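Supplementary material to the annual report.
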Amino acid sequence: MIPALGLLLGLALGLLLNPSVPLWLQPYLPIAIVAALDAVFGGVRAVLDGIFNDKVFVVSFLSNVVVAALIVFLGDQLGVGSQLSTGVVVVLGVRIFSNVASIRRHLFRA
Amino acid sequence: MTLLTSMLERPLDPGYQAAADRRRAAGRLPATSTRTPIVLVMVVLTGFLFAVGARSLRPQPTAASAAKAQLVQRIEALQARSSASTARLAALTGEVQSLEALSLRQSGAGGLESRSRSLAVQAGAAALAGPGLTLTLDDSPQSAAGADAGSRPSSGFSSGRVSSTDLQIVVNGLWAAGAEAISVNGHRLTSTAAIRFAGQAIIVDFRPLARPYVLTVLGDADRIRRVFDPAFAGVYLSQLHQALKIQVGWAPGSSLTVPGDPSLRLSFAAPLRRDVGSAPGPSPTGPATP
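Predicted assembly:
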């Protein structure tokens, strides 16, 4: 409950403050969001599995975002930015899907 | 395949399981609380990230798109105004014609009214109805895809499209074949009407047409076909159909209507002679300012 409220608070803050993202950061934003989604769904599944750990959650979140941004940066430098972004999105997308499937099994037993 | 298998089998971070095992080994509960401050901070940060991403990644309205939307709005408003004006013009023209007929009747000169009527018919000012035929011209099916590689000496036009020249030749052929009145997509062709092109669009009387081009022709349908087909325009049209796959459709009709041209203006006027009712019409003596 408290984390959900925190999420809403963060959303409200972002919408109200409406900060302008610097241009050099914009290519990393979509990948960072997908990585954050992966960490969030992983955390929710861990809660339902009964093995949630705050440190692991925070570390996985940060490392996901940083590694995803790093891959995109590296790809941009090598000239294969879009391909590497696609790879990151595919991997994280598969993880998100199977985590959501597991959450669904927990919640609906189906 | 091991990568895919491991991703699908154990999508959860192995770290969670490892941490839970460590805590179990230390004799504590495997799960920590979800309400620790660091989780809260992280979650707020996540929400912030989502909101910022949604805000800044949405396509921003640029100056060009705003200008375009404004132009579209203006064009639509002007089109609505134009059609309203056209309708009003048609109503007023009808009123003027009936008043004209009334005043001609009241002037007591016999035959003036019928002469005015026949002049209006010949000039294209009056709407007409009667038997005739419709001729539908349309671009060839391939021309949209640009697959037709045939060449026609009309640069800028992809072949397989109906050009203004085609329409001119066909219309002239129809006049020559005895058509009494012609309208193209609801635009009456008068003796001063022009068929031109602007870019790829065909323009009749300064109004652009959209395909298909439907020519409504009043007259003796059988006679028109009999004269038209072997003449130059008929041969030209069948060539268009065979070589460039331009779609041509004839349909006779027993009660077709062509509208009057609302944009006719007075260019010549002459005073009637005294012996008006019986004398033949005076010839135009000079241009009057419209």
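Chain A is about 85% helix and 0% strand.
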